[in-house]
Amino acid sequence: MYAQSAAEQKLADAIKSPQTSVVHLWAPWCSNCQAELKTGGWTKIVNENPQVKFYFVSIWNDGQDGRAMLNKFGIAAQPNVTIVADPGPRRGENKIKQFAGLPLSWIPTTWIYKGGDLRYALNYGEVRFPVLQQFLADSESEWSHKGEPSIE
Asked: What are φ and ψ of residue 58, in 5° steps?
């Protein structure tokens, strides 16, 4: 049986919220994660989407949350940002291989949730921010299905 970490338990309820939530798994030592921050993409996406809740989860980082690096890019102080550190070891066979019940083999990894449903999973590498913005917009839209679709 897989035992959830405190970070996973904290996010379990948060991602069930009716609002759109972004879980970004990263580590300050990771060059791909650093590259994402240096482009300013995360700062812009957080600022332009105040209705979205962002969770920056530092993993494989010996329990450190990376707050200093997020502060450097103006992300940590935003009201729609929560910073979490997973205590799991970073090295060797003991590092976590899943988070919140999903496989985890690479960072950065970004997941978009709404109402507890995983809408999008961007795994294995740096985020393309125009794509992320489109996924956020898609997640925010309400699709209504009133009966069968009509063909005209």
From this structure: -80, 125
- Look at residue 58 and tell me if it is in a domain: yes
Cβ–Cβ < 8 Å for 26, 57: yes
Q: Is 149 within a domain?
A: no
Boundaries of domain holding 128? 6-140
Give the closest residue to 58 by CA, choosing from 117, 107, 18, 122.
107
CA dihedral 70, 107, 41, 118 (to 10 degrees): -110
Domains of the chain: total: 1
Please say whether the beta carbons of 41 and 127 come within 8 A.
yes
Residue 112 Cα to chain centre, angstroms: 7
Residue 52 falls inside a structural domain: yes
Residue 108 Cα to chain centre, angstroms: 9
| Residue range 44-68, pLDDT digits in tens | 999 999 999 999 999 988 889 999 9
In a domain, 61, yes or no: yes
pLDDT digits (tens, 9 = 90+) for 105-139: 889 999 999 988 999 998 767 789 999 999 999 98
Can you give the pTM of this predicted structure?
Answer: 0.86
Where do runs of H (alpha helix) occur along the chain? 6-14, 31-38, 41-48, 67-72, 129-140
